[in-house]
Amino acid sequence: MSAGRQALLKRLGTTARFPRRLIAERRIVFVKVGRHVRIPERALAEFVTASTVQPITARRRFGAVA
User: What is the DSSP annotation of 16-41?
Assistant: First the structure.
C-alpha cells in the first residue's frame, strides 16, 4: 500500500473500501490519470468539512426531554 493511501486512510479513520466507495458513488472529487485515481487534498478537506455535523447546544427547559 502506498504512503499516500495510508495517509488518506489514517486521516479518514476508515478502511480501504470507504474511499473506493466514495469514488464509485461520485461523492468526492477525484482525478483519473490512466488507471490511477487521485483524490486532491483540497477535495478531501472539502468533503470532510461538508460532512461534519455540528452538535446541538440547546438549553433544556424545566422537565422537557431533548
Answer: THHHHHHHHTT-S--EEETTEEE--H
Q: How far apart are CA 34 and CA 53, in angstroms?
A: 35
For residue 58, what pLDDT band results from cuts at 50, 70 and 90?
Answer: confident
Cell of 44: 478531501
What are 52-59's contacts with CB under 8 Å, separation 24+?
A: none
46 DSSP 8-state letter: H
Tell me the chain's radius of gyration from C-alpha atoms.
18
- 29 neighbors 43 (Cβ within 8 angstroms): yes
Query: What pTM does this model have?
Result: 0.70
